[in-house]
Design a protein that fits this description.
Strand content: 35-45%
Low-confidence stretches: 7-24
Mean pLDDT: 89
Oligomer: single chain
Largest sheet: 8 strands, mixed
Number of strands: 20
Shape: globular
Distance between the termini: 32 Å
Order of helices and strands: EEEEEEEEEEHEEEEEHEEHEEE
Number of domains: 2
Structural class: mainly beta
């Protein structure tokens, strides 16, 4: 398990802070992008690959850090944003991080939500969860692992983070494909809840336009049922907007939970 200590400084609305909570608002947690490259999407295939046309007209294959279906966010012809790797040994020089859809930018990097969630927990930016003294990653639990474990002055909280990019009529929906693994995560969270012990699901929505979060019962009714059973068992559910721009990814507003 990797443990991340509380940082000494984070970005607060463009300014540095000592890492203490602001008295009048929650911290504004952001992850700045390196300079991004624009391209046009040709197709996404083989889960981890996509072909794009670069600004100079050349065709390039790029890495896609997303194993999901990417439902509603892999439309050919759309402008995409790529991050260039400094690793000369990589087979594909660029990684796809965002796509410009009609309703705005959508994040496709499934690693980003965990990074942003970790920073948010360390800064006490998730209302309802205590500020962390440290956050452990890839925590062994039962038959698998959970994403994060928050250690605070008032106890520990196990946290599973889910990346969400499917939004319909103001509702963020998860999952976008059947996920037996995701249902198992919910069962493991529920099994951890006990007197003095907390467990939480944190859904990070990398797409604008959402006002609430609901399980995608029409896609995976088993996961939806597991979520409701986990809530009854005491698992806490949080959903946060991720605000995206070509400059940074930032923790946005809390969304209503509609089960």
């Amino acid at each position: 398990m990797v443990v991340f200590p509380r940082p000494g400084a984070v970005i607060f609305s463009g300014q540095e802070s000592s890492g203490l909570l602001m008295s009048d608002s929650q911290p504004s947690v952001s992850i700045p992008w390196p300079p991004l490259v624009k391209a046009r999407l040709v197709r996404r295939y083989k889960r981890f690959l996509a072909d794009v046309v670069m600004e100079d007209g050349s065709l390039e294959t790029v890495h896609t850090p997303n194993t999901g279906t990417m439902l509603d966010c892999s439309e050919p012809g759309r402008t995409v944003y790529l991050r260039e790797s400094s690793n000369s040994k990589r087979k594909h020089r660029h990684s796809w991080v965002m796509i410009d859809m009609p309703d705005g930018l959508v994040g496709v990097d499934t690693l980003l939500p965990n990074k942003l969630a970790r920073l948010a927990l360390l800064e006490g930016a998730i209302a309802g969860l205590p500020p962390a003294l440290s956050v452990g990653g890839e925590v062994p639990v039962g038959r698998g692992r959970l994403d994060l474990m928050l250690r605070s002055e008032v106890g520990e909280v196990w946290v599973e983070v889910k990346n969400c990019t499917l939004v319909r009529d103001g509702t963020a929906l998860f999952p976008d494909a059947v996920t037996a693994r995701g249902a198992r995560h919910l069962e493991e969270l529920a099994g951890l809840v006990a007197p003095g012990r907390r467990a939480a699901l944190l859904v990070m929505v990398q797409r604008g336009g959402a006002r609430r979060f609901s399980p995608a019962d029409h896609i995976d009714p088993v996961w939806g049922k597991s979520l409701r059973e986990a809530k009854k068992a005491g698992v806490e559910i949080y959903a946060r907007q991720v605000d995206l721009s070509p400059a940074a990814a930032s923790l946005g507003r809390a969304l209503e939970i509609a089960l």
